[in-house]
């Protein structure tokens, strides 16, 4: 039952070329940066990443992206990540953009063994009708476009069929974890982390504080250890390294 692994490098050592990864985080909050950095040092490439976004401020998944290690991204947001946009538009990266709520439910469904579900999100758009560019040719023409999806009417409202997501691995970050893999997330850093953890066949969690089994009140567990296979305890400096994307301040009289 002790799932603690000695170091991030050992925890991701079996992530091979072309592996699929569900990665927690939203912007810079709750991103498993230590595990991502370990993958970068290992030189793994051709990765298929499922994450809300692909890193920011040259941290998180942006490190792998800049190194050319990511082949495909399933996500919801490109944002201010100029390198993400450049690779996509240049035909160097395949990107499946989907509504954020749909992404969350696809991860959750995959983790709960639900193969597919219907949602009204995306009906009447290229999300349902197909034709959304997944990959461009270098000349700007579309190389791969999304296929049309099955639709069905429920109570007079059209819905589109979306498939659950399962990945080879999942990388997440938690504020507190015990040796059995039970995790607690801090405030907004919870974001996509529990959902990504559910979707991974092998889930690796980096934790800012490691405690013994029983120290976490069962009512306070956000993600049960059944979804987590490996736990990595962060060093104090790693746990404290939390970047701020937009710093807004005001002068106090």
Topology:
Layout lengths: L7 H4 L8 E4 L9 H10 L4 E4 L10 H6 L3 E6 L6 H8 L4 E4 L2 H12 L4 E4 L6 H4 L3 E4 L5 E4 L5 E4 L2 E7 L3 E12 L4 E2 L8 H7 E12 L18 E4 L2 H5 L13
Parallel strand pairs: 1-2, 1-10, 2-3, 3-4, 10-12, 12-13
Antiparallel strand pairs: 5-9, 6-7, 8-9, 10-11
Account of the protein in words:
- The chain is globular.
- 22% of the residues lie in helices and 28% in strands.
- It has helices at residues 8-11, 33-42, 61-66, 82-89, 100-111, 126-129, 193-199, 236-240, and strands at 20-23, 47-50, 70-75, 94-97, 116-119, 133-136, 142-145, 151-154, 157-163, 167-178, 183-184, 200-211, 230-233.
- The mean pLDDT is 95.
- It has one domain (8-115, 164-240): 3-Layer(aba) Sandwich (Glutaconate Coenzyme A-transferase), CATH 3.40.1080.
- The protein has 8 helices and 13 strands.
- The protein has 253 residues and is an alpha/beta fold.
- β10 and β11 (183-184) form a beta hairpin.
- Strands 1, 2, 3, 4, 10, 11, 12 and 13 form an 8-stranded mixed beta sheet that branches.
- The chain starts with 7 loop residues before the first helix and ends in a 13-residue tail after the last helix.
- The longest helix has 12 residues, at 100-111.
List keywords for this structure.
single chain, 13 strands, 28% strand, 253 residues, Glutaconate Coenzyme A-transferase, alpha/beta
Distance between the termini: 54 Å
CATH class: Alpha Beta
- The count of helical stretches stands at 8
Strand content range: 25-35%
What Rg do the Cα atoms give? Answer: 19 Å
Structural class based on helices, strands and sheet pairing = alpha/beta
CATH H level: which superfamily? Glutaconate Coenzyme A-transferase
Number of domains: 1
CATH topology descriptor? Glutaconate Coenzyme A-transferase
Oligomer: single chain
Low-confidence stretches: none
Overall geometric form:
globular
N-to-C SSE string, H for helix and E for strand:
HEHEHEHEHEHEEEEEEHEEH
């Amino acid at each position: 039952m002790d799932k603690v692994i000695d170091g991030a490098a050992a925890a991701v050592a079996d992530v091979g070329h072309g592996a699929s990864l569900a990665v927690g985080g939203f912007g810079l909050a709750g991103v498993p940066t230590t595990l991502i950095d370990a993958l970068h040092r290992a030189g793994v490439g051709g990765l298929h990443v499922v994450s809300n976004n692909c890193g920011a401020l040259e941290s998180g998944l942006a490190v792998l992206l800049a190194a050319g290690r990511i082949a495909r991204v399933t996500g919801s947001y490109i944002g201010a990540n100029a390198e993400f946009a450049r690779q996509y538009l240049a035909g160097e990266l395949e990107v499946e953009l989907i509504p954020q709520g749909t992404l969350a439910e696809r991860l959750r469904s995959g983790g709960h063994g639900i193969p597919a579900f219907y949602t009204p999100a995306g009906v009447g758009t290229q999300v349902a009708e197909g034709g959304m560019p997944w990959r461009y040719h270098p000349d700007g023409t579309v190389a791969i476009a999304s296929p049309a999806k099955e639709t069905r009417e429920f109570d007079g409202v059209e819905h589109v069929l979306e498939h659950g997501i399962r990945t080879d691995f999942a990388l997440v970050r938690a504020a507190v974890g015990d040796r059995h893999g039970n995790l607690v997330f801090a405030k907004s850093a919870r974001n996509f982390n529990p959902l990504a953890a559910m979707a991974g066949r092998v889930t690796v969690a980096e934790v800012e504080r490691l405690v013994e089994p029983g120290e976490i009140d069962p009512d306070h567990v956000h993600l049960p250890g059944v979804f987590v296979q490996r736990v990595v305890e962060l060093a104090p400096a790693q746990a404290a390294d939390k970047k701020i994307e937009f710093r807004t301040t005001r002068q106090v009289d």
